[in-house]
Amino acid sequence: MATGRLHYRIRDRKRWREFLGFLKTLRRRWPDQHLYLICDNFSPHKHPQVRAWCTTNQVELVFLPTYASWLNWIEAEFAAVRYFALNGTDHRSHAEQDAAIGDYIRWRNQRAKPKSAFATGSKIRHPDYPFKAA
């Protein structure tokens, strides 16, 4: 959020092992910081080995409530990736598609700005918003 830059990794599978590998990459990139990652409730994010590694490596997974993906800033970025890199295309291979996604993200990161006022007009940010516990 401090830079507005995206960090990504494309893999053939989305199992807990790949997610843990991504977390380890982030840990190497920022070795001395406590990391907070906003996650949905996808089961690989909650795997016991992922949770154990996070506990011992100063990585905190922050899970969004079910059906609240709209609270996650990255969802808007997914829409932009789809619009700028995937819609109206006919990629001949996964490698070509991956390259288009990477090109977009590099272009976007060159223009990135810090996310300092996210959803300022949203009613959920007000202290009197009626929170309903699940």
TrEMBL record:
In what residue span(s) does the Tc1-like transposase DDE domain sit?
16-89
Q: Which InterPro entries match?
A: RNaseH-like_sf, RNaseH_sf, Tc1-like_DDE_dom
Note the superkingdom of the native organism.
Bacteria
Sections of the chain in a coiled coil: none
Q: Which Pfam families match?
A: DDE_3
Put simply, this protein is called: Transposase
Provide the species name.
Micromonospora azadirachtae
